[in-house]
Design goal:
Mean pLDDT: 93
Number of helices: 2
Low-confidence stretches: none
Radius of gyration: 22 Å
Distance between the termini: 40 Å
Order of helices and strands: EEEEEEHEEEEEEEEEEEEHEEEE
Strand content: over 45%
Structural class: mainly beta
Largest sheet: 18 strands, antiparallel
C-alpha cells in the first residue's frame, strides 16, 4: 500500500468563470512549499440532559475551508497569485517582454479552483471557490524568497483521479533575496536589516444557511497594507518622517535584469515614531511598523511584474 509523500504532491489551479464551479480546462501547475488547504468539519458536543452521565452522539458543525499556502516568489507563476489577490492586470508587450501592472482596490476579484494531489494514494483535493485573503512577504539578506498566502475556499471535492488534465507548466526562475531592494521616495533606503509587508483583502465570508454547510461566497472588504522596517540607526531620516506625520512612498522589489523583475510600490506610507533601544554593545536598531493608505490616484499598492509571459 502506497503512502502519500510531500515530495510527490502536486498543485494545479485555474480561474473560474463562475464562482464555485471548477473549470474543465485551463489549469496551470503551481509550485508550492507548503499547503493546508482542505475542508474540515467540526463536531458539537450534545447538550441534552436526562440520559445519565454517558455522552450522547455529537452533531456536525459547518464546513470550513481556510488555509495557508506558501509559494515561491518566482518570475512567471507568481503572476497567477497576483491576479487572484489584485485582479486582472494591465499588460503591455514589447519585443517579447511583457509588463503586467496589478493594482489594488478592484470592485470584484476572481476566484480559482486549486487541486492538491497525492498521487500515491491516489487522492486529489479539488478546492473550489478559492479567493485570496492575505499575502505576507518577508525580506531579508539571505535564504529563500517565499510568500505566505491566506486563502478562503467555498468547498472541496475529494477525487480519485486528477481533474486538471495536463496543466501548463512554466519554467521556474525564482527571485533571490540578494536581488532585493527597498526604496524611499525613489531613492535606495539604506541600513535596512529586514522588512516584511502584508497585503489583505479582508474577505468577508457570506455565511448563509445552506444544506451543504458551506459558505455562499467570500466578498472583498477594505484593502489593507502594512508591514515592518527594521533598520540600523545611522541617521534620523525615518524618525524625522515619522515625526512630521507626512506619508512617503516605499517600494519593495527584486530584479534579475531589465526584462525580469517584480516590485510592490506603496505610494502612501505612514511611519510611527519608533524607539531606538540600546540592548548591548552591538549596533542600535529601530523598528517601524508602518501602515499604508490610498494615494491621490485612489490606489494603495501597485505590483509590477516584468517577464516573458504574454497574459494571465
Amino acid at each position: 500500500m502506497a503512502r502519500a509523500r510531500g515530495a510527490n504532491a502536486v498543485m494545479a489551479g485555474a480561474f473560474e468563470a463562475t464562482y464555485g464551479t471548477p473549470p474543465s480546462s485551463g489549469y496551470r501547475k503551481l509550485p508550492f512549499v507548503q499547503s493546508n488547504l482542505g475542508e474540515e468539519q467540526g463536531l458539537i458536543p450534545s447538550d441534552l440532559l436526562g440520559y445519565g452521565r454517558e455522552a450522547l452522539p455529537p452533531s456536525r458543525d459547518v464546513i470550513n475551508n481556510d488555509g495557508d499556502v506558501v509559494v515561491p516568489i518566482d518570475l512567471r507563476t507568481f503572476g497567477t497569485w497576483l491576479k487572484l489577490f489584485l485582479g486582472q492586470p494591465s499588460t503591455t508587450t514589447v519585443s517579447g517582454t511583457s509588463t503586467h501592472v496589478f493594482t489594488s482596490g478592484a470592485a470584484a476579484l476572481p476566484s480559482m479552483t486549486i487541486e492538491v494531489g497525492l498521487p500515491e494514494v491516489p487522492s486529489y483535493g479539488q478546492n473550489f471557490g478559492v479567493r485570496g485573503n492575505t499575502m505576507r512577504v518577508q525580506m531579508q539578506r539571505s535564504g529563500l524568497l517565499t510568500a505566505t498566502l491566506g486563502l478562503i475556499a467555498q468547498g472541496e471535492n475529494k477525487l480519485k483521479a486528477s481533474a486538471a488534465g495536463t496543466p501548463t507548466e512554466a519554467a521556474i526562475e525564482r527571485f533571490a533575496p540578494a536581488q532585493g531592494a527597498i526604496t524611499r521616495a525613489g531613492a535606495a533606503l539604506g541600513s535596512v536589516v529586514s522588512a516584511d509587508f502584508t497585503y489583505s483583502n479582508n474577505l468577508d465570508k457570506v455565511e448563509t444557511i445552506r444544506s451543504d454547510g458551506r459558505i455562499e461566497d467570500a466578498e472583498p472588504g477594505m484593502v489593507a497594507m502594512s508591514g515592518n522596517l527594521v533598520v540600523r540607526f545611522a541617521d534620523t531620516a525615518l524618525l524625522d518622517q515619522a515625526s512630521a506625520g507626512t506619508p512617503v512612498e516605499l517600494s519593495f522589489g527584486w530584479a534579475i535584469d531589465a526584462a525580469r523583475s517584480l516590485s510592490f510600490r506603496v505610494p502612501s506610507v505612514y511611519l510611527p515614531r519608533a524607539k531606538t533601544p540600546v540592548t548591548g554593545p552591538a549596533g542600535v536598531q529601530a523598528t517601524f511598523p508602518w501602515q499604508a493608505s490610498r494615494d491621490a490616484s485612489g490606489k494603495t499598492v501597485i505590483a509590477t511584474l516584468v517577464n516573458n509571459v504574454a497574459n494571465y
